[in-house]
Amino acid sequence: MKVNWMAVVVGVGIAAVGSIWAGRLLGTGSGGGTILRPDDARLVARGEEVYRKNCASCHGADLRGQPGWQTTAGKAPPHDATGHTWHHPDPMLVMVTRQGTVRRGGAMPGFAGNLSDEDIVAVLSYIKSRWPDEIRATHDRINARYSAGAG
Ligand code: HEC
User: Fold this and answer.
1) Which atom of ligand 1 is least distant from the CA of 93?
2) CA 150 to ligand 1 center in whole angstroms
3) CATH code of the domain containing 108
4) For residue range 53-101, what is the model confidence (pLDDT) as tens digits?
5) Percent with pLDDT over 90 in the chain
6) What's the structural domain count of the chain?
7) Which of 44, 58, 64, 119 to mutate to test the pocket of ligand 1 (most atoms within 8 A of CB)?
8) Which of 50, 79, 121, 149 is deepest in the core (most CB within 10 A)?
9) DSSP sequence for 38-72
10) Atom of ligand 1 at shortest distance to CA of 106?
11) Sign of the C-alpha dihedral computed for residues 57, 62, 63 and 67 taken in this order
């Protein structure tokens, strides 16, 4: 069975939790869709290290995911421009990385116990730093829409 777990995650109120998260990470105390810092070279370098150790085994050293990911449940999707990671705003990416998807019938372990908040922001910032400019710009707009409450 192919579980649309992202819809499930959204269904359990990720928007609310996500904006608290964003507020905390940004130190603003209010909501906000932008958490990642793909232009912060030091953070991105740290994120690359985190990625190699924790994510590459499934999502691929080159971010290309596992063959058959579109059709086979449990295969890790790519994090490059060919996947759909960039379709989701920052708070959702942070949440998925923290919680994983196992509890929702998916195959990804949660990293909340192993990675600090800053490591999670670092690894996702690294992933974003690898996207082409136009995908990054689109993702910025997705974050802005999400901050404005339009999902
Ligand atoms: C054991 C394999 C595995 C590891 C290790 C893993 N993932 Fe995943 N990840 C998956 C799978 C499989 C999915 C797709 C959802 C599902 O089927 O459970 C996924 C989905 C995701 C998504 C959602 C992508 C989308 O397009 O919606 C994000 C973000 C993500 N992973 C980030 C990470 C990060 C960051 C790490 C390392 C810290 C990581 N993953 C490590 C297997 C893994």
Assistant:
1) 29
2) 25
3) 1.10.760.10
4) 999 999 999 999 999 999 999 999 999 999 999 999 999 999 999 999 9
5) 74
6) 1
7) 58
8) 79
9) TT-HHHHHHHHHHHHHHTHHHH-TTS---TTTTTS
10) 18
11) negative
Nearest residue to 40 (alpha-carbon basis) of 122, 130, 109, 143: 122
pTM for the whole structure: 0.86
Q: Which atom of ligand 1 is nearest to the CA of 119?
A: 38
User: What's the CA gap between 36 and 58, in Å, rounded?
Assistant: 22
**The pair of three-digit structure tokens given for residue 89, joined into one six-digit string:** 């705003």
pLDDT tens, residue by residue, 106-116: 999 999 999 99
Q: Which two tokens stand for residue 145?
A: 């829409």
Q: Letter for the amino acid at 3?
A: V
In whole angstroms, what is the distance from residue 43 CA to residue 38 CA?
8
Q: Which residue has the tokens 């058959």?
A: 68
CA-CA distance, 61 to 48, in Å (whole number)? 10
Which domain covers residue 43, as residue numbers? 5-147
